[in-house]
Amino acid sequence: MEVKTKDRLKKLLAQREKKHLHYVNLVKSSDSAIISRTLGGSVISWNPAAEKLFGYSAREVIGKNILFLFPPGNEAELNKIQKIVKRGKPMEDFEAIRVRKDGTRIPIVAKISPIKEKTGKVVGLSAFIRDNTGAVQARERRKMMNAKLRQSRNNMRVILENVADGITVQNSKGKLIYANDVAAINAGYPSSREMLKNQAKWKKRFRLKSENGEPFPLKRLPGRRVLKGEANPRETVGFINRENQETKWAVIKARPIITEKGKLRAVVNIMNDITERKELERRKDDFISIASHELMTPITSIKGFMQLLKKDLKGENERISNFLVKMDNQLNKLTELIQNLLDLSKVQSGKLKYNVEKFNIGALIETAVNDIKKASNKHKIIFKNNTDTMLFGDKEKIYRILMVLIENAMKYSSNKDRVIVSAKDMDHKVEIKVKDYGVGIAEDEKDEIFDRFYRVKDSRDKTFPGFRSGLFLSREIILWHKGEIWVKSQKGRGSTFYFTLPTELK
Amino acid sequence: MKKILVVDDDSAILEVIKVILEDNNYHVKTSEDGNIKNTVVRFKPDLILLDLLLSGEDGRDVAKRLKSSSKTSAIPIVMLSAHPSAIKAAHESGVNDFISKPFDMDYLLEVVARNLGA
């Protein structure tokens, strides 16, 4: 019986020993530093992880006051821990700085628990401590990033508030979520805040018009078009103040902001106030218009007197009559130049007016060819007419295109004697062809010749004067008629200019 | 002899048109401004050649006045202008024909004859 009891006791002790050992091993092998101390501060236990974290061995610190771990002058922190633990409360995620044996400081995070007697009296505390360097660094990085973000947001705000352009941002539903002050003030609001509050108000304040004077429909505004999927629309819009009828002009561009998944997140609108430029343009147009009118007046009387003079000679003096014809032709050229100048300034500002009438294109070409024949007999101009079609268009302007093409053909084939003009009916259009056998145009110049101030160069790099704006203006006019113009040519073997005009002007 | 009144603020143009027309047996009177009401009443022209841009006055207003008065509305008016694109505006003021400046002598005579019903 006694033996039995003894055995049982032995077994129990062994079990306890095993359990104790288990705990000891757990503490020893823990990644966290585990230390315990009395309430008074003297260290009771110090595991290997604590040795590793702080650099002190257990032997060095057991029995010592824990203050050695605290940065100097941090008794207040110690007192605070003391106070809380005394009340029997644990502390979770307690962050602090501690000092290693080598004097370096280390941020830690600890879980502190009171150690109680059976009576419940607190006699000490245990602490699980981990190196908090990573978390602190991450937090610092976050802080820095936030600061940078704030800084760049501030920079952005300063930029947005100080650019000369009005800038607004709409969300994907078209609601205004940002407007800079320039945008707000141009739209008639006292501030951008007011604009965001009262988004629809500007529509009551302004009437919109296009450059050609027609009303500008709201759905054509670039922002709305981006919302419908367009990538980078651009429009020139006039804003007429309904109260005082004053017009402000703006070039409006809109761009989508796309999410990583490719969805439309927002629309940025950029509005460039071009009112001043428009005003300058208008004054320039007025000036050219008045100047060309003034120039036409003396030309008119000179031309009249010259024709009278020629008539009075009654062909008696062939030499003088011949000179007078030449002078008359030069006056026609001068008139054409002035007229081109006037049209050029108008076409640029979109104000060129078209007088549409019904006319026979074949007959018009016949007239142009005959007028040229009267002016010059150097070239044999052959007209092959294969059309009797009536077209709708600006007869006068198309006449001038024909003059430009035939005169150019003669000018650039001064060593040849033939120019062939032909016209034929095609599907819903008429194609007109002007062919010469002159210097031709190099491949890389074929598109450029329709630019504003282009001139074809000859082989010695000497420019042929006078090409000037004829082709540019011709192209503008043909495009207005919804026709096309192009050239086929080989350097040194002549050029053929083609243009088409639709039979119905839509 | 048919009577023609020519209105233009440029004296050289007035002179050359006068010579051209007189050479072709028209009786011509000229005016350098648009204040022609009395002249029209007294001279009773068969045709008026009227410049579109007179100094101080728009030729279209002169044309409208003439066309709205029963005494003068029957007189054909041919408008002259250095702006070929003004043809539409000219016709809107009720004129009968349009010649752009500068013009050929023969064309001027042709338009004049046409509007005199010759």
TL;DR?
The complex is a heterodimer of chains A (506) and B (118). With 506 residues, chain A is α+β, with helices and mostly antiparallel strands. Helices cover 43% and strands 26% of the residues of chain A.
Describe this structure in words.
The complex is a heterodimer of chains A (506) and B (118). Chain A has 506 residues and is of the alpha+beta class. Chain A folds into 4 domains: 22-131, PAS domain (Beta-Lactamase, 2-Layer Sandwich); 163-273, PAS domain (Beta-Lactamase), CATH 3.30.450.20; 279-348; 357-502, Heat Shock Protein 90, CATH 3.30.565. Chain A is built from 14 helices and 18 strands. In chain A, the strands form 4 sheets. Chain A has a 6-stranded antiparallel beta sheet with strand order 7-6-11-10-9-8. In chain A, strands 2-1-5-4-3 form a 5-stranded antiparallel beta sheet. In chain A, a hairpin with a 5-residue loop joins strand 10 (247-258) and strand 11 (264-273). The longest helix of chain A has 39 residues, at 275-313. In chain B, the strands form 2 sheets. A 5-stranded parallel beta sheet of chain B has the order 2-1-3-6-7. In chain B, strands 4-5 form a two-stranded antiparallel sheet. Chain B has one domain: 3-Layer(aba) Sandwich (Rossmann fold). Chain B is built from 5 helices and 7 strands. In chain B, 40% of the residues lie in helices and 24% in strands. Chain B is an alpha/beta fold and 118 residues long. Chain B has helices spanning 11-23, 37-43, 59-68, 87-92, 105-115, and strands at 3-7, 27-31, 47-51, 53-54, 57-58, 77-81, 97-100. At the A-B interface, helix 10 and helix 11 of A face helix 1 of B.
CATH topology of the largest domain in chain A: Heat Shock Protein 90
Strand order within the widest sheet of chain B? 2-1-3-6-7
CATH-level-2 architecture of the largest domain in chain A: 2-Layer Sandwich
Please give the oligomerization state of what you see: heterodimer
Helix content of chain B: 25-40%
**What's the CATH superfamily of chain B, by name?**
Response regulator
Sum up the overall morphology of chain A in one term: rod-shaped
Biggest sheet descriptor of chain A = 6 strands, antiparallel
Mean pLDDT reading of chain A: 88
CATH architecture of chain B: 3-Layer(aba) Sandwich
